[in-house]
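All the exercises in this workshop are built on plain-text protein records. An example says more than a description, so a record of this kind follows:
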Amino acid sequence: MPEYGRVVLTLSNVLLPPEKLYPNPTPSIIEGLPYDVEYDLRLIGCELIQSACLLLKLPQTAVATGQVLFHRYYYSSSFVRRPMEIFAMACTNLAAKIEENARRIRDVINVFHHIKQVRSGKTIRPLLVDQAYIDRKSEVIKAERRVLKELGFCVYVKHPHK
């Protein structure tokens, strides 16, 4: 009788199989996105997660978990089809939950809104709770579910240091 509820990860069933790793093309490259643009999007996404986690006062393990989830997701999905900023928010929110430092989704959205204003040099204004906010919240929740589904709910990240 098979044993259920146990996940066994070995070199033969890694989370990213060899055909998804370099030098094989990622879904973004297959859809025509140049390598350097994909690289920049990955870098910007990780920087956003790092900045957001600092503002949310999350531990470094949550930052690293969010960045790993972000990279894993985009080895299975395309930047062309999925908006980087929404998925960076979703990975930040998911990482906070995984590392048992959950934050309200409103706080995550507010922090990303703040970072966007600072980076663009705009006047800092609070995020209004209007239809645009409700739509953004719905997008982030759906993106979080999509990340979980795409990764097969295998979201455990073993970090080299704590």
The mean pLDDT is 89.
